[in-house]
Structure formats: C-alpha cells, structure tokens
Amino acid sequence: xxxLVESGGxxxxxxxxxxxxxxxxxxxxxxxxxxxxxxAPGKExxxxxxxxxxxxxxxxxxxxxxxxxxxxxxAKNTVYLQMNSLKPEDTAVYYCASGTxxxxxxxxxxxxxxxxxxxxx
Length: 121
Known about the structure:
Blueprint: E1 3-7, E2 10-13, E3 18-25, E4 33-39, E5 46-50, E6 59-60, E7 68-73, E8 78-83, E9 92-102, E10 105-111, E11 115-120
Parallel strand pairs: 2-11
Antiparallel strand pairs: 1-3, 3-8, 4-5, 4-9, 5-6, 7-8, 9-10, 9-11
C-alpha cells in the first residue's frame, strides 16, 4: 500500500507562485505513475496534471496549461506541482495520486489527504 503526504499549500495573492510536494512511501516510487488533482468547494474533483489515461505526453488541464508544471524526483520519492501566476479560481484542495499502467491504461489507486491552496484577488 502506498502512502502519500502532500505539503506546500497556503494562502497567496493572485500572481504568486507555490510549489506543492507529495512524498510517497510504501511502494517502488520509480514504477508509480503520479498525478495531481484538485477539488474546489461545490465542484467535482478535477485532474490537473499527470500521465493521461491511455498514454502520451503529460496532461495538463486547459485551465492550468502554461502555468503549472508537474515533475518528480525519484531519489526523493517526491512529485511536485509548480504553480505560477496563480489565480483566485485555482483555489482548491490539491491532492496527489499514485497509480500504475496496466495494458496501456493508467489508473490511480492511492490518494493523499490533500493540501489547501487559497488564492486571494
């Protein structure tokens, strides 16, 4: 079983940057696929960044493309989400997720507890 712990959230102003971190334990990190989701109040959870479901280049939600970047450091068992030019609409709880690829299909199996990001205007 994989445990995921996010950090790095906080209250910032519009235009600021934040870097979220997610440390994984309990699995072979280098073999895991990692992604970031977010959920704003009253809205459904949204896939923000990570490997797409059926392969291909890294997916970014259209609302964050060009502003957010996902990266990973296998030596530190950590995945990051660099968020630049933050907007009030980026306010949400951000979750990292880990998963695998089976028969060419990516699934997310484990989730962190989330970290709150609040962007004031």
